[in-house]
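Ticket #4471: complex job returned nothing on first submit. Input attached below:
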Amino acid sequence: MANIKDVAKRAGVAISTVSKFINGGSVRSKNAAAIKKAIEELDYKVNDVARMLKTNIAMTVGVLIPSLDGLFFTTIAALMEDEFQKHGYSIILCDYRNDAGLEKEKLDFLISKRVDGLVIVSHDSLQYLDSRNRQGIPMIAIDRPFDGVDSVTSDSFKGSMEAIETFIEMGHNDIAIICGPHEVYTSKIRLNGYIAAMKNNNIKIVDEYMQFEDYTIEGGYKAMCELLKIKKRPTAIFTTNYELTLGAMMAINEENIKVLNDISVIDIDDMIMMKLITPSLSVVAQSMDKIGITAAKLLIKRMSGDFEKFPQNRIVETSFIKRNSIKRIKT
Amino acid sequence: MANIKDVAKRAGVAISTVSKFINGGSVRSKNAAAIKKAIEELDYKVNDVARMLKTNIAMTVGVLIPSLDGLFFTTIAALMEDEFQKHGYSIILCDYRNDAGLEKEKLDFLISKRVDGLVIVSHDSLQYLDSRNRQGIPMIAIDRPFDGVDSVTSDSFKGSMEAIETFIEMGHNDIAIICGPHEVYTSKIRLNGYIAAMKNNNIKIVDEYMQFEDYTIEGGYKAMCELLKIKKRPTAIFTTNYELTLGAMMAINEENIKVLNDISVIDIDDMIMMKLITPSLSVVAQSMDKIGITAAKLLIKRMSGDFEKFPQNRIVETSFIKRNSIKRIKT
DNA sequence: CTGTTAGCGCATTCAA
DNA sequence: TTGAATGCGCTAACAG
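Support reply: We reran it on our side without changes. The output follows.
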């Protein structure tokens, strides 16, 4: 492959002139034309590796998410990528398959690639990074806040309360929740929202009504199967993630029961399917756009050296969207 | 951050000795100990960028898939990653959101990262790469074969035929197929398998029984809704991808009809959900392991300079797994 | 086995 | 504005 030297020779100028041309400096128009021509003829591409070695800037950010199975994170990753791209940054996307060991490995991989910034949805790698003195790489936590690190999270505690209170207003008392794994932050906070709303309304909390599964379709299916086995079936279900909801819907539909008529449902995360199915699902919508773009912008700021008000913990409001999956019942 | 020079100084040896030590050369044990100590004390990490500039080897392969939404490809990507890792390679995963323009961009990004090899699930970037003279980067096509490029694909033509013939043996004549987009290779080939089986058995092919949608949950849902509207409803459905199947199941379940009793179903791709739901689904299983590992191994071979029998087009057999979603009907 | 040295391709000083 | 020269951190001769 042609290098800058070849271009310089062909254009009859010095290497430094070509370099300046490439990087937008001012060059005599005659030289500019010659360089442009040479670049085209040689199909010259800047060698980013060499440039990176020299400048120590990769124009790349690493994005680390728990798993590629979760639509919420992959969607946010895609949104962030758009935003980064506008500012000239590319992203390297990694997942760690919900495995803490792998998480650290991937983090080291990203660091070894000398990324300029890091976006992380972490179980515990933030502490790991911290212990490694954070390598001076700006980073931002998504979905789960951490001490001493910029973060962008949803107010899903409030969102969950809102969902449960909607059920209660509609006359429901037997309200179940399908949560993610016990140890995950969002799982805990959503459960807390549920508990708070129940307590505020003096409704007894039933252990069997709280199910914990992985944030997967299978998890939602299993959890709902459990709930349907209970003698006193819940009349309302709060499913706290897209995949859990899909699985739960499949389990419901297999029984001779119907959403709305027999059971009311509210889901967290407003994906296309939620509007498409019958009845359309009421949701606590997390603003994936806002989360992604807020995080990207803040990280870009940090990467440019601006550490004003560090660390920031941005909280994005959720919004309740009422559709056709909640039935008023008699009390 | 410390560099190799710092380590050499601290260990009291030459840079080249440190380099040799790092790269597994033989070094006087006393020096080895000193170097090791210095590396630890300085928390020295090799600068991969510099190494890459020098050696022109990134020990990284780029993996480009259509979308992060598709479980089939993300699963294969994960499997390949395991295999690559065993050989010291890391992967950079990119998706192009089913957008041809983005596909080329991402490809250029991967190339600009100077990856050593490329795994591609492509609409048309292979031609693009070809037109750019393939930059000399070894690459392998997954899922969709291409001229002049190594590839690993499933024999889903045969798999589809097998599925349809199973339906026919069970007495079905009104068999529908839910395909992916018209232009996608796998979509075409699976449709061809369907058509071949129908023709072989002298069954008339009904246009309305062939639905084409994106390979998404929404697509499957829509397609199935269409099929259920037909006056003469099909008695059997062949859904040709995991997401299409999920969406179709949701649509079925919303109606007052039941898989097995009212409608028989066979799906392509054997994911966990297929066994979990009731009734469990019969599937044409693509061996994701075999595809991923075969592709990874072949690419590793190419990256090591071995171009024996180039190009190879490996075809992986599918296997039919009969479960409880097919009912024998009277003819 | 060890040390000296020359680049890998580029950006950037500093003179001109 | 331009060009010659330096060095980013590392590997790989080569000579000792």
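Residues 3-5, 15-16, 19-20, 22-23, 46-47, 49-55 of chain B lie near DNA strand D (CB under 10 Å from a C1'). Closing as resolved unless it happens again.
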